[in-house]
Amino acid sequence: MANEQSNSANPNVDLKYRRKKNAEEMKHQVVTFVLMIFFTVISFVAVAMDDFSHWFIKPVILLLAVIQVVFQLYYFMHMKHKGHGTITLFLFSGLAVGLITILTFLTIVWL
Amino acid sequence: MHADEKFTDATWPASPEKATLEGKNKYLGFWLFLGGETVLFASLFATYLALKDKVPNGEAALAKDLFELPLTFVATMLLLTSSLTSVYAMYHMKNNHFKQMQAWLVITIALGFAFLGLEIYEFNHYVHEFHHTFTSSAFGSAFYTLVGFHGGHVAFGLLWFISLMVRNARRGLNLYNAPKFYIASLYWHFIDVVWVFIFTVVYLMGMVG
Amino acid sequence: MSTYANKKGFGATIWDYLTTVDHKKIAILYLISGGLFFVIGGLEAMFIRIQLAIPNNDFVSAGFYNEILTMHGTTMIFLAAMPLVFALMNAVVPLQIGARDVAFPFLNSLGFWLFFFGGVFLNLSWFLGGAPDAGWTSYASLSLHSAGHGIDFYVLGLQISGFGSLMAGINFLVTIINMRAPGMTYMRMPLFTWSTFVVSALILFAFPPLTVGLVLMMFDRMFGANFFDVAAGGNTIIWEHLFWIFGHPEVYILILPAFGIFSEIFATFSRKRLFGYSSMVFATVLIGFLGFMVWAHHMFTTGLGPIANAIFAVATMAIAVPTGIKIFNWIFTMWGGSVKFTVPMLYAVAFIPTFTMGGVTGIMLASAPADYQYHDSYFVVAHFHYVIVGGVVLGLLAGINFYWPKMFGTLLNEKLGQITFWTFLIGFHLTFFIQHFLGLMGMPRRVFTFLDNQGLNTGNMISTVGAFLMAFGVLVMVINIIITSVKNEKVGNDPWGDGRTLEWSIPSPPPFYNFKQLPLVRGLDAYWVEKMEGKKEMTPAEPLGDIHMPNSSFLPVMIAFGLFVAAFGALYHMDDKSWTLPIIIVGLLITFGSMLIRSVKDDHGFHIHKEDLMDDSDKGGKA
Lengths: 111, 209, 623
Prior knowledge:
The structure holds three protein chains of three kinds.
Chain A: H1 11-49, H2 54-76, H3 85-107
Chain B: H1 21-51, H2 63-66, H3 69-94, H4 98-130, H5 138-168, H6 178-208
Helix pairs in contact in B: 1-5, 1-6, 3-4, 3-6, 4-5, 5-6
Chain C: H1 10-19, H2 23-51, H3 62-96, H4 105-124, H5 140-143, H6 150-178, H7 191-222, H8 237-270, H9 277-290, H10 306-318, H11 320-334, H12 343-366, H13 368-374, H14 378-408, H15 414-440, H16 457-487, H17 526-532, E1 547-549, H18 555-572, H19 580-600, E2 606-608, H20 610-615
Antiparallel strand pairs in C: 1-2
Helix pairs in contact in C: 2-3, 2-4, 2-16, 3-4, 3-6, 3-8, 3-14, 4-6, 4-18, 6-7, 6-18, 7-8, 7-9, 8-11, 8-12, 8-14, 9-11, 11-12, 12-14, 12-15, 14-15, 15-16, 18-19
């Protein structure tokens, strides 16, 4: 696992370092959050303006959703940290099965 | 090492959720479960997309008649913010700050309830204004099932957080309950991930036509 | 609850099994209940064959025939094959990777009880107004219009047992990823463990679509939704897709463990390392992967269009490649080995040609244009019985014979085992080989009778005779089990003498903590490696110390029972009865209340102390 407890001789120094690292990470999380809100607002505004063709809007808002979800997964849910290889493999396998299902239901479900 | 052991700030491990074998197992097992949930929601999305605007007659409401931007926007903001507040809660858990963690979780829960309240209002609105019900059309069935499944997940997540907080209110953090808090917050993030696709695919794309 | 006592009363034994979280006991529970459902499903098969023995037979009515046929398929797949597979996985996999327990002992037990109550619920339909009658695939266009509550039993029963399978899948995945003994790398895992790993991943991704399909069906039938009702904008094809997105991986969920078992048996009784180990692993993973992209070959005649049919036909045929790799590897494992024809080995050897025949008809069916001819005929029935009975059931029988001493500490009788083998094998080919030709001659599947003078009489008669031979074989096996259990001649760690993997290095049956000291794994076939260096046991990887074990719990039974109760309420809900809602609520309260107790009450398990371990002779460890 990535963050094994270090065996520093002076636990207080170690603690300070860890606190600082945690605080730094939290800052990144807030930045991530701001970006997510930003993307969400763009999506809503694009739909509200109602001037664009839906051939343009749909791919754009889907792309924004995907970026947001990547942020959510990799930052909020820490998938960017080491030791998440197995998890990534299984999550993306699930995603692949899910996407095939969606593709099927958009194409070969006649009626 | 005993699971009930009390920790000081210095002895508290950097990743308390993965410090024990039980914690590691829970952590991995829960992620795998989320992999399965991905397929579950994908199947529901697929069903919704196949049945979108499939109604028995011309009078029934379609997606573009139903949805309104302001309501969806507020709901989205509530849920996205609750995702950040649960990140704050986990930040304090990693620093062994139990009180602050509980405080942020309370905010998360409040936001979750607000979201759920909006959703109930929304469903009620559709039923009474548009006669768009679970049984009125295939579109209705698919819509309420997909969004309702998500709402059910939100409700379950709220109950989960509450029972964890009440149970551990007196005794603070230890290596036995830290993984439990952590996976509950993972679940909460996953709910948010699903919502991002719901507001995009169901609401926004529904309004575009 | 530490269980050191050897002698216990009957009631205490029952209580012990109701509350156990020990994977070895859960394996026995799966084996007993799976075996019971196998007998029930087998009886249903006999009714089918008796009805079809002669033309214009009236042994059963057309409606009852539909129920028997549906329940035969559903029972055999969900309630017999799945649990028997889980039985062997539970009994063997933790031992093979050198673990003291599974990752989630509580979930493991919950998984079993969900399966059990789901299965009982489904079978109660026989006594409560009729069983489901829309085939095991329960296509929506049939099942929405099925009168009575049969389909509702199907939907709710499978839903409950499906949750159990999902839990078992996650449990095995985490166990294999996190709990391997020191030195047990992925590429040193025995093939049965590998196939369990891949199968668990398939379960994880295949069961959610089934869950969704069953939920939609439940909403349609019980709560007035319109997913499959074309008049209200619904679409019946959705069910077919959801069912087969689950259903096709499901057949790989069944066959891959059988492949794993045969791999162990071939290596053991040829006294040779498995030929092409890494290609076997690769082939297993590849089959699992491809298993998700072929489901629509069950739907060629649905009208998906030529492009979709072509894609799915090609993907289906591609599966023959990794399967072929496996077949050749098994043959090469025997090549030049000193082969011992024990009962498990007999099954393994018979499996190769039998399964290959099923594979060849599979390729025939995979050709979309030809499939329009074979579709819904007895040719299909013959094909899938060749792969499922010729693959899965032979694998399970082989595995049960092979691992019986590890599970129960005594060997099954070899002579009776051989009688079972020969009657079952000959009976099997008599029953199903002729069905290929019946199908090609135009006999449709799922018909309750056929007319005289159509050339179908002889074939059907032969098929029925074969079915009786198979039943006789199973009967002999039951007698064998009873006789050997009564005699109960104890065997040592390695009763076959040629065990290669870790499970054979510990007593039969193993003590409840499995390994006193975790073993150090130094290569593929870890126990064999030590044997080749003249050692009698594994090198320990740790000093003797306290062992942490989980507590027993009655809550899994409660959780599953609550759903069982709630399912009755949901089932009769559409009849507008006043008591249904309270029943649903009471059931869910039992379930969620038990879950709450589980999450609120701390459960730290207990420790077996070092001193007790030193006193405890290996043999006396039976919990």
